[in-house]
Amino acid sequence: MEKHIPDCPYPGCFFCVMKEGNPNKRRASIMKFFRELPSQDDDGQVLPISGLWNTAMAHPNDPEFIELGIFECMSALIWKGLKNRRWLSHDQNIYIPYYAAHIIGSYTMNMEDFAETAVNAGVIPPLVELLRGRLTWVEQRVAVRALGHLATYASTFPAVSSHGEILELCIQLAMSSLEIVYSHFYQYADRRLSYHCDLLTRGMGGVEMESRKAEEWASQLQCWSLQLINCFAFKPEFLSTICKPEFLVKLPGMWGGLVNENSPAGIGLLRTICHHKFGRGPVSSCPGVIESLCNIARSSDDWQYMAIDCLLWLLQDPNTFHKVIEKAAPAVLDLAEIQTLGDHKKLGDSILNVLQESINSTGNRNSISNRTQEDIESLLDSRERFKWEKSMPKEDLHIKQAAALVVKLEGNSLFSSGNIQAAALKYSEALSLCPVRSKKERVVLYSNRAQCYLLLQQPLTAISDATRALCLHNPVNRHAKSLWRRAQAYDMIGLAKESLLDAILFINECSNSMDPDLNCRQNKVPDYAERLVKKQMKAAWLFREAAVKHGGIDCEEGGGGGGGGGDGYGSDDSEWETASESDVGDGGRKEIGSNE
C-alpha cells in the first residue's frame, strides 16, 4: 500500500512547482515564483535559491529558467540584499546575494544569448555594487566572475564597458584582493564570518580546510579580476587606463599560485597588452617587467610561451626595441633552440628570425651593445653551422663527436678532482667542437657547465646554461638534472616561484626516470628536493606579502603565520643548502651534483 504524501504547507513552494507534471502549468508557476520571490519576506528563501544554484552549476546551458525570468529575479534579490540590511540579516538571507550572483555567472559563462538576456534584465548595476565591496569579498568574487563572463561576448561587452568604474574597480581589486582576503578572513580564525566558512567548505572540514579554500578563492578573485581587465585590454581605448606603471610592475607577480594553475593570470594580461603597440610602450618603460618576462620565459611555467611572445613583440617593434634589447637578448638567446612548446611549433625559428631582423636593421644596430651583437652573431653562425653539417660526411661528424667526447671526459675528470673553473672551460671547448645537430650530447655539456657555474657562485650563467639544455632536450623542459640545477640557481638569486616550479617538475621527472641517480625509489621524494620545495612554497606563498604587512610573519621568516593556521604547507625549520654551499667539499658529488 502506497504511503500518502501530505500536501506541502508552503503555497507556491519552488520544489513542489518543479514536480508539476503539466508542462504549461509548471512554466506558469515557475514564472510566478521568479516574479514574486523578491517581494516576499518568508523564512527559508535560501533553500530554493541554493537549489537554483545547484541547477545552474549542473545545467548552465539549459534555457528553461532563462526564458522564465531568473535573471530579473536574481538581480532583484541582490538589490534587496544591498538596500534592506534588516532582511539580509534575517534567517539565512545573508547567503542569497552570493547565490544570486553565482547563478548569473553560471548561466552566462557559455551562452551569448543568455548573456544578452541577462544584460537586458538589468543584472550589471547590482553586480557592480557587489564589485565595489558593498557586502564582502565573497560576493565580490562571484560578481567579478559574472561580469567577466558578460565581458567576453562582443554583444554584451559594450554594456559592461559603459560602466566606466568597472575597469578601475577591477584594477584595484587585482592589486588588493590577496590582502583583503588575508586580513578580512584568513588572518584570524576566531573572527571568521560563519556564512563565509559555510560557503567555503560546504560544512566539510575545519579551520585548515577553510584556510586552504580561502587561498583558492583569493587566487580566483585576483585571476578573475585580471580576466575581466583582459577583456578591456583588447580595446586600445582602455590601454591608457590599464597601463599605469604601478599596476604593470605587479602583473608578473600575479600568477595564481599552485591553487589556480589553470589561469594565465598576470602574464596573460601582459601578453594582451604587448600585442598592441599602445601597450608595448608602457611595458618597455618598466625594466622590472622586462626582467620578470625574461625569468618567466626561462622557467617551467605553463605560460612560458606567453612571456616569449611578449619579448618577441617588444623586440620587433622599432619603438620599443632599443629599450628592451639588452635585457631581453640574453633570455631569447638561451631559448633560440627550442622547437616545440606545447602547441607552439618552430618557436626557436621565430626567435632566430626576430634576432636576424634586429641585427640587419641599421636603426637597431646603434642600440645594441658590442657584447649583445657578438652573442647574436654567434647564435646565427651556429644556425649556419647546422646547415653546413647537413652536407658533411658522416665520418667527419663522428670525428667531431669523438673529439668533443674526449674533451668532455677531461672536464669530468677536472670536475671530480675539484677543479671547477678548469672543468667549465673544458665543457665550453667541448661545446665548440660538438656538432650542432648532436643535441643529446649538447644537453649534457650545457647541463654539466651549469653545475660548474653553480659551484662557482655564478647563478645567472647557470640559469642560462640550464635553460639551453632544457630547450635542446626532447621533450622540452624535461631534463631532470638541468631542472634541478636551475632550481638551485633561481634559489640563489631569490626567485622563489621559478625555483619552485623547476623543483616540482624535477621531482616529477625523477619519479619517471630510469637513471638510478634520479629515480625516486618506492615513490619517495629525495630529501634535498623536498626541502627546497617546502622552502619555496613558503617563500612563494600567495598570502606572504599580506602576511608580512599585517604582522602574520616576520620579513625574515619563510612562511605564513597568524591565527589563520599558518601557510597551509606545514612547518620545516631546516635550512636549505644550495649546491654552492653543500657540494664544494666533496667535489660536487652530493645529491645530484655529479656531472655526466
Automatic annotation (TrEMBL):
Top-level taxonomic group: Eukaryota
Biased composition (Acidic residues): 570-584
Stretches the record annotates as Disordered: 554-596
Residue ranges with Gly residues bias: 558-569
Domain ARM repeat N-terminal plant residues, every copy: 7-244
Any one Pfam family match given in the protein's UniProt record, by short name: ARM_7
SUPFAM superfamilies found in the cross-reference section: ARM repeat, TPR-like
Basic and acidic residues bias locations: 586-596
Top-level taxonomy: Eukaryota, Viridiplantae, Streptophyta, Embryophyta, Tracheophyta
InterPro entries, sorted: ARM-like, ARM-type_fold, ARM_7, TPR-like_helical_dom_sf
Species this chain originates from: Lactuca sativa (Garden lettuce)
Record-given protein name: ARM repeat N-terminal plant domain-containing protein
Cleavable signal peptide: none
UniProt-listed PANTHER family: ARM-REPEAT/TETRATRICOPEPTIDE REPEAT (TPR)-LIKE PROTEIN, ARM-REPEAT_TETRATRICOPEPTIDE REPEAT (TPR)-LIKE PROTEIN
